Amino acid sequence: MRRIVVNAELSPATHTGSAAGGVGHSIAHESAHKHVQGTAEYVDDLPLMPGTLFVATGQSSKPHARIRALDLSAVKSAPGVIDVIVQGDIPGKVDVAPVYAGDPLLAGDVVEFIGQPIFAVAATSFVEAQRAALLAKIDYEELPAQLTVEDSLAAQSFVLPQHQLLLGDPEANIESAPHQLSGEIYVRGQEHFYLEGQISEARLTEDGGIHVISSSQHPTELQKLVAEVLAIPFHLVVAEVRRMGGGFGGKESQAAPLACIAALFAQRNRRPVRYRMPRRDDMIQTGKRHDFLNRWKAGFDSDGKLLGVDMLLAGKCGFSPDLSEGIVDRAMFHADNAYFLNNARILGLRCKTHTVSNTAFRGFGGPKGMMAIETLLEDIARALGKDPLDVRKANLYQPGTDETPYGQKIEQHVLPELIERLEKSSDYRARRVAITEFNNTHRTLKKGIALTPVKFGISFTAKHLNQAGALLQIYTDGSLLINHGGTEMGQGLYTKIQQIVASAFGVSVHRVMVSSTRTDKVPNTSPTAASSGTDLNGMAAKDACDKIKADLIVFACEHFKITAEQIQFNNDVVVLGEQELAFPAFIKLAYLNRVALSATGHYRTPKIFYDRATAKGQPFLYFANGAAVSEVTLDCLTGEYKVERVDILHDVGKSLNPAIDIGQIEGGFIQGMGWLTTEELLWDEKGRIISNSPANYKIPTAFDVPDIFNVELFDEPNLENTIHLSKAVGEPPLMLAISVWAALRDACSSTTNYQFSPRLDTPATPERVYWALQECIAFNQPGESKALVTRGAI
Amino acid sequence: MRFVVNNVPVELAEAAADLTLLQYLRSQQHLMGTKEGCASGDCGACTVLVGRKGVDVMAYSTVNACICPLGSLQDCHIVTVEGLAAAPQEMHPVQTAMVECHGSQCGFCTAGFVVSLAGLQLAGGADLAEADIAVQRAAVIDAISGNLCRCTGYRPIIDAGLSALKKPAQVASFVQNWVPYAPLAGIDGEPARAYGRNLSDGVSDYWQPHTEAALQHLLVEYPQARLVAGGTDLMLEVTQQYKSLPQLIDLNRIDSLCAIHISDDEVVLGAAANYSTIEKALANLSPEFVALLARLGSRQIRNRGTLGGNICNASPIADAPPYLLVMDAELEIVDSSGNARRELLTNFYRDYKKTTLGVGEYLARIRIARAQLAQPLKLFKITKRYEDDISAVMGAFCWGGQTSNEFKIAFGGMAAIPKRASMTEQFLSNTEWCVAGDVDEEILAQACDLLHSEFSPLSDVRASAAYRMAMACNLLKKACYEFAAEASGKALETRLFSHA
């Protein structure tokens, strides 16, 4: 039994030794040198094992149909084909759904979206597999398909039951408010477009098990599903992830089917199998960010303060639940964004459509909920003739008005001060005046500006996922090896873990190696998602460090006849009362004295709970905050625009690595800007996705980055006891980009002298901006009512 | 076929004609730093440098390895990310700058960015080092215009590019370090057949003739062969549709098809001249067109893609044809017997993806009169994303000025073919739409009515029909506002960007 020594020196969460490159330093990403030299290995770069097979799938060409006949003879006899499987060939579980049932690995009698895999081919080359997969003859009996949110609402067809948040009495308070408004916005989804497409390689072990090497945010789920599909125990499956070429949520649940199919072929053929999705298949076959149709009705006073809000958030889930329960929940939990709603009803619907099942994407529903409230507050501002910033500020959570619709009280009020600082540093008011002047003197060009805040809840809303494990080993040369349950997708998690471990022992980061995430090293891991990677795994790693350190201190006290207070770990040296030992020498001494130099660590997030029955609880440990000011110029003749300047102030608590945190903020912002501007997911009337390649789906390029792009950290410690009092940073900055959309709408509105907020669904492509401007022109026509314009109804 | 990969000379006798450079690098050279992100030339993760012997030095340009046929690289020096550093323990200045500026996150796109920025150093680093920061920034952004990054938001990559520009001397030394290892001076073969391979279902050949006579001979001999210049469109059949292209005839080494001749009367553009070459040649003669080329495709695409390809593809949304239509460009078309004919581009397009090009014919040269080039010109391209996107509407407007008043209008994206708006042109040419620098809105409204009668565009993934129609009218208006203002010497701000 390990003795845990409670020691005053060790227990504070912030205790760190001085370490070169440790916590708080802007060290480079742990793989940066490998990245720039092209030596960082991704799954497809691994040397091919002899006999490796390659996979392609045969895909449904109908959105909803019964398969009458499936003729695979031409597929089987095609050059290079070794094996072809259908659903009936799966020895174990067919359903690979992450939470609720509904995701068959291969379709059975019924297909539910265009692109759904019906069979899989293994061939001796990638091209042979792709060519063979096109040769199937499939006879379909077409069934009625619902392709849009509207179709689903009309049919009242949902993948999961609805859920509702209720605060106070919204009906009565909207009714009795001095002013009412209602409106609607359609917020389109987003393709992840990780640069490395989905990929898994499966290798058979001598025990009949599988070693699967994958690009996945959730190795444990891969392990579980591969074992279930093959009908073998979990301990025969090892899932390994060294790094991903981007994830963004798209490799949380969507990586598993590739691993399962590769494993199945490996088991059947006793050969290694590599399944890489080419870009087009990836864009057709894997889930995306949900579209949301948001409708609202609100009552407010003459200052623009909300008295009551009634909101409907309808997410387009696709054909199966996948992760849509949590995603729509998170949309609902963020439909208040940073604002006190006073009285609120927030109804979340999970619409079933015969399209690919939508999935996690950075923000996990949060961005869509925020779009609803931000649109609403702007409409209120225009209706009252106020600057939207003033209405936003008037509604911020403050001490006393701090209860969210789900019953959690806001405890750390960061935003009032943060916004005040940003408003000043960005010179918002003076620029507002200059913009009005510009707009008065320009006929076809108009400028707009907006400041929008973000308050984002940190923790998984599925409580059990809020835990993590780590395994630390120290070797006798003083080098350390840390494994943990999180995965590296570029966000810098491994780097931060390295820094946390280095600081715990006061050693240089170069002594600390972070190696592949493997289910045989750290079991039962949670997905690296919900911005929680560092919060959870950093604490688990620190727990492992603390355990070994406690044993080392006990040993040193006995060995050197000193007290714990006389021991310090600093700058690669251990101070032991009067004497010092280099860290490696001390570790070697500890080993010779039979001290255990390996430990597991574990962490579970405290305080959080949520009761679905009452829709009340404290689902989040804390909130990360930020705000952005964006300025745009638009061309009224075409709807084209340019983002001229962006200023961001973002709250990461006490930063573990400012350079990495700023990288997350800038990257998240630009990705969010793409979501709201140029990235347009489109399906045709038959249910086929037509934005199916980078030629017709446009993520931002370097040209789209504003020339002036100021990003600063709001460097205040977290009030909660998180790892070194830092805050999560992965998702929250994405929603700072709402300021770009709001600035575009502001520029449109300027053509009505800010009396009217046109509808501006997202993405606000030049075409949508153009039509919004036409709505403004119509508003300006003589004879049009200048009263508050209401659109849509609940 | 002979070429050099990094410091290794390669002799290759056998390969499939449609083998891409990326497939070759990854599967046969085991150089895994070059990645496949999209296999369609859209993301740049596969960017490599290709050096070809210029007048006296090697000239390096970036290409998308994923859609570059290996056979086109006879005598070339291919430099991948692994070959940039002078020695194994060293890094190229761009690599160092990328680490220092935190320019990588997931790292998958990184090698492509590094190679693109190294390419910028080679192409113009020394001059750029002295340039104004705005010029440097524009050059860096142009260099990485074909590289997508989904993690960083680009700011640190742009910073890394700017930072590396401060080290021109170091960069130059890296180039010198390559050359002794690369025995390119000795490579001077010219086999018309680069390589081939016996396939189970026939023979695969990649031909690279050096003269038009040789080309004509091959056209007779191999009537089924496909012509490839840059391959930026053709190779998508291989990488996206998994088709096999067993017989390819490459036009890149025929000097008479690649050359650009500028005389006092006309500009003659070889059909196989790539866009980057045209940009340099026309920088002063047609700055509007050169500015449009920056948006036609990424730097990598412009280093390979050709004007002849853009024309012969006959895509209704191609960017160059509307410009060439208002320039009254003339095509020189040659058949396999060497007989040439000339045809106005206006008459070349018959229907959707159909041209007058007959069996055995090829487009040799494009001719534009110098007098045309001198006329006031407006080019506008409407897309969802500013850079490297396909047009929803492409508008070209040319006005003879107040004396002749001849108005020429052409659109891409508005019909099944790139098309002149002849009725609207005629109306405006015969109407006084501009008086003392002021545009007569009433007349413009009538012109727009005519455009409505001349075009009925489609709705697709890029735009709705209604938006396309509205854009045709508004681009015409915008052109008129600008023409009128310029004619009267007024300053008029109508553009978000300085061009296109």
From TrEMBL, chain A:
GO terms for molecular function: xanthine dehydrogenase activity. It comes from the Bacteria. Pfam families: Ald_Xan_dh_C, MoCoBD_1, MoCoBD_2. Residues 37-144 form the Aldehyde oxidase/xanthine dehydrogenase a/b hammerhead domain. Its EC number is 1.17.1.4. Keywords: Molybdenum, Oxidoreductase. Belongs to the xanthine dehydrogenase family. This is Xanthine dehydrogenase large subunit. The lineage of its organism: Bacteria, Pseudomonadati, Pseudomonadota, Gammaproteobacteria, Cellvibrionales.
Automatic annotation (TrEMBL), chain B:
It holds the Pfam family CO_deh_flav_C. Its EC number is 1.17.1.4. NCBIfam families: xanthine_xdhA. It is an enzyme of class 1 (oxidoreductase). The keyword Cell inner membrane does not apply. Transmembrane segments: none annotated. Residues 1-84 form the 2Fe-2S ferredoxin-type domain. InterPro entries: 2Fe-2S-bd, 2Fe-2S-bd_dom_sf, 2Fe-2S_ferredoxin-like_sf, 2Fe-2S_ferredoxin-type, 2Fe2S_fd_BS, Ald_Oxase/xanthine_DH-like, Beta-grasp_dom_sf, CO_DH_flav_C. The keyword Flavoprotein applies. CDD domains: fer2. The lineage of its organism: Bacteria, Pseudomonadati, Pseudomonadota, Gammaproteobacteria, Cellvibrionales. Keywords: FAD, Flavoprotein, Iron, Metal-binding, Oxidoreductase. It comes from Cellvibrio fibrivorans. GO terms for molecular function: xanthine dehydrogenase activity. Residues 187-373 form the FAD-binding PCMH-type domain. This is Xanthine dehydrogenase small subunit. It comes from the Bacteria.
